[in-house]
Amino acid sequence: MSYYAKNTFLHSLSKVVSKVAFFAILGIGFSFSVANAKTVKIGLLSGVSGPIASMAPAIVSGSRLAIRQVNQQGGLFKNGSTLLAVFGDSGCNPQNAIDAATKVVNLNNISAMVGPNCSGATIAAAEAVNIPAGVPLISPSATAPTVSALNDNDLVFRTVPSDAYQGQALARTLISKGMKSVAVAYVNNDYGKGIADSFKAEFEKQGGTIKGYEGHEGAKASYRSQLASLAGKGASTLVIFDYASDSGMTILRQSLENGFFENFVGADGMKSDLLVKELGEENLGTLFVSSPIGKQGEALARFNKAFTDYGQDKDAVFANTSYDAAFILALAIEKAGSGDRAAVAKNIRSVSSAPGLVILPGEWAKAKKAISKGQDINYEGATGSHEFDKNGDVPGTYALFKVSGGNLVVDVNMK
Asked: What's this model's pTM, rounded to 2 decimal places?
């Protein structure tokens, strides 16, 4: 072997080893073996790099728990086929999402997809890859209202409610808490602008005043001049629609350091214990963040116990919606009787809508038996009912969280 060939080989080998180590750190299974014929593949596209990197491992774990339960309780179909996860990193970025989706759809031949996570990534992957290829997807965390408007041939679904609802609920909640004058800083993407616009319309409708409303680009070193401008307009409360792992953290830190605002409010992108770890609980006594929550009841309790037993934080944002997305796809595959993409898409609504035998999280064996007998089933998930509307959307429930005991805990339920 020549010097050049030897070094090229070693470089390639080091890249492979690094990638294996990377996926191992995330707790994501990785195998060089070719899957046997008795498998059905679903893609898991998550943003393990980029602005939601701190959230992504728990989101992925939610889906992986569902897949694990399916395989532990008899697998798919009469022959016990394995449900196999194929992972891709969307980077919370449209082009990265297209690249990752192209790979898992065309090379790995998946039957369906959980994800991508971020709204812009979801829209890009859906339009460029999933819809043309006829591959259904369920996003557990793409919340932008613009997702609802996709011409998707009934292939795009969400287990998380649209920000059209969350922004409105947050606006009403702040008014009820006496925060009637605010400034708004939002990251200039589908997620940030979508929820900011929804919030602004409802806040003003409820009699509130927006003193400063500005978009910004992510990943900048400083937002001090923009924050000074917003603060100079007279509001004592800053509403931040951004990501805790990215510019949202920077904006909050620089606001605190410079005393620009007294109170801070965020939405689900800011719901991360990383804020407490980085900025200290003593500095976050006036911080509130909103987020979708599961409907209290047996279904959520079953998920919470299983996810905790799986070694994960049951309160991690979007973990339960990710679990529901994967479980619904598994049920649709089972009812379809194969991994045929069109058949799977056709059965997503039927396995998650009333009437039918109620299936709760973890009840795979029960569901499989019912389907084999030709019974209708109705999955009631960790996040509640999934009666998808014509746009593939679901209604939701929300809570406002505050910092206490080193964690984000529920302050009040939102309506």
From this structure: 0.87
